[in-house]
Amino acid sequence: MLRSERLLLYTPLIALDVWVPAAARSDAEAQHWLGLKTDEVVQDEEVRELFLSIHADNDLSGFAPRDRFKMMRKVEKGSGDFVELTAVHMADGRYAGATSVSLQSGEIGGWLAPDFRGQGLGGELFRSAVQLGHRHLGLKIVRAGAEPTNKASRGALTTAGFTPASGPARLTLGDGREIDTCWYEHRQEATARCRGAS
Predict the structure, then answer these.
(1) Are 160 and 127 in contact (CB under 8 A)?
(2) What is the DSSP string of 52-89?
(3) Burial of residue 187 (number of CB atoms within 10 Å: 0-12, 13-18, 19+)
(4) Taking the model in full, what pTM does it have?
(5) Considering only CA atoms, which of 30, 24, 28, 31 is closest in space to residue 47?
(6) How many distinct structural domains can be found in the chain?
(7) Looking at CB atoms within 10 Å, which of 8, 32, 155, 190 has the fewest?
(8) Helix (H, G, I), strand (E, B), or coil: what is residue 121?
(9) 66 falls in which pLDDT band (50, 70, 90)?
(10) Is residue 194 part of a domain?
């Protein structure tokens, strides 16, 4: 579990800890930048809104079984190559988004739900990814790519202490789109690896 100024981040404990962050990255604005495959997003807008209204400590007994089943069918499990942290906004109690670190490449990613964008939380999210990479996974270098026109992502990376780095100039997103990419990295020589890190 990690804590930033306004976010509580933890490895998913229950299914909703995976499903709600998936809904948070499924709107048109997020997909413009993330370009995920169709089966990696919650396409149904009503289901997405339902997910994003849930507080992390909600009692879900009020949802009809058919609603829970509908939610479960909408999101596919992610890859085992990444360690993902679910982010909850501490003052609000709702799921705010997620961040992840690749065990193989050290690349991070992250996204915020629409209600939590534009508040400076991206820097906190990426600082938590840095902490996860260096202090829990034992990575000396944590990297991130961003589109040159994605000012929010680039600003959040800079706020989190990332510096410009070399990397592939073009990247193909999950939905097949090819984009220009600029790269950033965060280096730290003193690292630690948790016993549970695989």
Answers:
(1) yes
(2) HH-BTT--GGGS-HHHHHHHHHH-----TTEEEEEEEE
(3) middle
(4) 0.85
(5) 24
(6) 1
(7) 190
(8) helix
(9) very low
(10) no
